[in-house]
Design brief:
ATP binding, single chain, P-loop_NTPase, ATP-binding, AAA+_ATPase, 8 helices, alpha/beta, nucleotide-binding, 26% strand, binds adenosine-5'-triphosphate
């Protein structure tokens, strides 16, 4: 079943988040994250901040379906990903979620474009060209158009992070989940990336949730959640 997307004023569509009664536990049963209720409208952006070990990445992983909660519901649109089978959750993530994580997970022996267009390797033949073209367009937009064919092991940290962004965007996701996207970047590169990330919800009704310690990124997002000891302790519209 395809999730319901809401349409914004410009005719773009997006997926909102609705979390209820979420508990995430470690394999030994220790509680890691507990969120009673959280609503994020489609087309809006949220920063999650808080001290190390607060559970920010664990929550983000659960929202992406990479971590299965012990209890609770995680709706994106009208799809509760916590009730999906592993295979269906993977499909949902592939079709609707762009992940930008700290460790870029790039393949050193491939070129920038091959990395950015990695999803094309797993996609049905009919979608491959589309994915590759979109990855290429994102590299261009992020200032890497000229070096898409160079091997990734020759790239700087900032270039790698932008390739990871192009990869996340290559399937035109309704949802973007980013974990410390600016952490490894110098200020100038970070600011460029922040401009690009902050534009995503506005230009296409995408929902953006970013774990970040970077005040410059926090300042550009609609809302700020602060986590401590596995809970959301503050929720402010930034
Ligand atoms: N699979 C797991 N098994 C056991 N403990 C885990 C597991 N995953 C996360 N934790 C623990 O959960 C807590 C929250 O970790 P998490 O990485 O979500 O924190 P964080 O707020 O993102 O921290 P940081 O800012 O340092 O990245 C930590 O104490 C971590 O050790």
């Amino acid at each position: 079943m395809r999730p319901t997307r809401v349409r914004d004023a410009a005719g773009h569509t997006g997926l909102g988040l609705s979390v209820a009664g979420l508990e995430i536990r470690a394999p030994d049963g220790r509680p890691l994250v507990s969120v009673g209720a959280l609503l994020v409208p489609a087309g809006s952006s949220v920063a999650i901040r808080g001290p190390s070990g607060a559970g920010k990445s664990t929550l983000l992983h659960a929202l992406s379906g990479l971590v299965q909660p012990a209890t609770g519901r995680i709706f994106w649109g009208d799809t509760d990903i916590s009730r999906l089978s592993d295979a269906a959750r993977t499909r949902f993530r592939r079709d609707h979620v762009g992940l930008i994580f700290q460790d870029f997970l790039l393949f050193e022996e491939l070129g920038g474009l091959d990395n950015a267009a990695l999803a094309a390797s797993f996609a049905p033949a009919a979608r491959r060209m589309d994915l590759r073209q979109r990855a290429d367009a994102w590299l261009e937009r992020l200032g890497l158009g000229q070096i898409g064919l160079r091997r990734v092991d020759s790239f700087s940290g900032g270039e790698r992070q932008r390739i990871a962004v192009a990869r996340a965007m290559s399937n035109d996701p309704a949802v973007i989940l980013a974990d410390e996207p600016t952490a490894s970047l110098d200020r100038a590169s970070a600011n460029r990336l922040i401009d690009d990330l902050a534009a995503l919800p506005q230009e296409a009704g995408r929902t953006l949730i970013a774990v970040t310690h970077d005040p410059a990124l926090v300042a550009r997002l609609d809302r700020v959640l602060t986590m401590a000891e596995g809970r959301i302790v503050e929720d402010s519209h930034g």
